[in-house]
Amino acid sequence: MKFKVLDKIEYPSDIKKLDDRELIALSKELREFLIDTVSKTGGHLAAGLGTIELTIALHKVFDTPKDKLIWDIGHQCYPHKILTGRKDKMKTLRMKDGISGFLKRQESEYDSFGAGHSSTSISAAVGIDQANIINKDDADVVAIIGDGGLTAGMAYEALCHAGDLKSNILVILNDNDMSISPNVGAIHNYLTKMLTSKTLKNIKDGSKKVLSKIKPIENLARRVEGGAKNLITPGLLFEELGFKYYGPVDGHDLLDTIKLLKNLKARKGPRLLHILTKKGKGYKLAEQNPITYHGVTPFNLKTGKSVKKNTGIKKPTYTNIFSDWLNWTAENNSKLVAITPAMREGSGLVEFEKKFPERYFDVGIAEQHAITFAAGLACENIKPVVAIYSTFLQRALDQVIHDVAVQELDVLLAIDRAGIVGADGETHQGIYDISYLRMLPNVVIMTPSNEKDMTRMLSTGLEYKGLAAVRYPRGESRGLSVELSEIEPIDIGRSKTVRHGKDIAFLVFGTLLHTVIDVAETINATVVDMRFAKPIDEEKISLMCKNHQLIVTVEDNVVSGGAGSSVNEFILSQKLKNNIKNIGIPDELIGHGNQDEILADINLDYNGILESVKDHIDMIDLKEKA
Ligand SMILES: Cc1ncc(C[n+]2csc(CCOP(=O)(O)OP(=O)(O)O)c2C)c(N)n1
């Protein structure tokens, strides 16, 4: 594709040379380029389309990378990447050895702060601004956060601190009314009310008012001092937190946004600019269906249909099976409720919301609250199922410990995207949960190797009195037929031997079981599907130690503190003399690429696992020959 203006842009310094006409042309071309690129690579589309004008305006006005742009989450960062020296690399987006789909300090000096998880931008901005004061650096600091990102408590902790410190930061609230699904919560209602109130006119007039240096909020706020509580004044909430509020303004008016940003750059102290944008702007299908186009696989530009290779009958994903289990179980258990922190689609709760709206809770991007809210429900004999991605559960570890485990409350965690997640890369890998849950007394951690066991384990967790977790991976299941009416719980802590061999026993936690069985066929080893990372099946481990020279644990969690560690601890405590090898995620950052490529890269594929035990096989052979 050839572009008149975009082709001349390598770095933001090139944008600074453009006149108004060229800037407008750039916004059109950038949009076209973005749509074309993502239609080929897949990735996050709708959010980037909504921030084209903002991205150009920010790089036009601010002196990046000296001035710091801190994008929240980072799923909207593709236009920023294209304008900061990575246009040619966009074809490698999210691929192994290609550029990341999120912000990454290691990738570019223009990525001032790494992200992937939500609602960190304002905190980071406050930190960078304080560092600038100490370092006597006059750089500007801008945090860009969505209305979804603003549902998390951390954003308010940061606003409160910034207001108190009088931080010299500009926060841009990119309000498009959407999280991944429609946004939720009282702040969202507040923002909506603000726009439907008498001050709606400000959307059109907002930029002009700011430009003419009117401070509408200050004046209005003074007028309502002490009374008229219900008067909806735009931004009053932010003003109370110590920010000067500007807006709301149209975030797709590029030239006005540039003027506004110039004006705001010249001001000091905590400032908040509220812009209104449309998710998916400029690609009709994405505008009409921003949920579908939030994140996409490669698609046909005209039809919008996925062009994923047809590999025959598609098996249901683990998420699909969880969804079926949840809906079926809820029919028969009126005390069951489901909670999601803003991941209705990803976690398979769309049907549940339709069927049981009064038992469905989207709490916003608020993982900590999701867990403690579940704990509260559990206090009154309601059984909460928290459907949560492994990576996002990290946020709520103290709530899991303090509010659930310590109080011995009955909560079931349905941990999706456990293990290697693929293209989203290091910020999203689900590789720590066994380690950070295993330390808790009385927790039951289940690691199904297939979807049938997964449903049995979910039912086991539902019955368990205390904290239970079932972790399952992203992607297709094994394609087994699962008859939900016949689901029986599993004995807690009971493993299953799936292959009898000699010398080497593989103890496997999770879906790597099937790769391990292939390896075991080659070397005639024993394979045990451990099923439970806690409590582990000590009896079976003792038996395996008696009959085998080498015990090999396999899991798709980090080796540090993982399920294999608990086997080591047990073997040591019994003073058994077996050789042990732990196979799992190595002690390094695990980047992006497709799941199979990454597994191969870290030796968790057939060849890698075979190679890992080869030395031991040679030793056993030598011993036998001697
Ligand atoms: C802690 C955390 N929880 C959940 C997510 C998943 N997630 C990615 S984007 C998104 C919605 C963000 O909405 P908003 O900030 O309004 O940005 P928009 O996509 O609307 O531009 C969510 C929930 C995440 N990245 N981080």
Description:
It is a single chain. The chain has 626 residues and is α/β, with parallel strands linked by helices. It has three domains: 19-284, Thiamin diphosphate (ThDP)-binding fold, Pyr/PP domains (Rossmann fold, 3-Layer(aba) Sandwich), CATH 3.40.50; 318-486, Thiamin diphosphate (ThDP)-binding fold, Pyr/PP domains (Rossmann fold); 496-625, Rossmann fold (3-Layer(aba) Sandwich), CATH 3.40.50.920. The strands form four sheets. A seven-stranded mixed beta sheet has the order 9-8-10-11-13-12-17, sandwiched between helices. Helix 12 links the parallel strand 5 and strand 6. Helix 9 (201-211) packs across helix 12. 50% of the residues are buried. Thiamine diphosphate is lined by residues 47, 50, 73, 75-76, 117-118, 146-149, 176, 178-180, 279, 341-342, 365, 367, 392, 395.
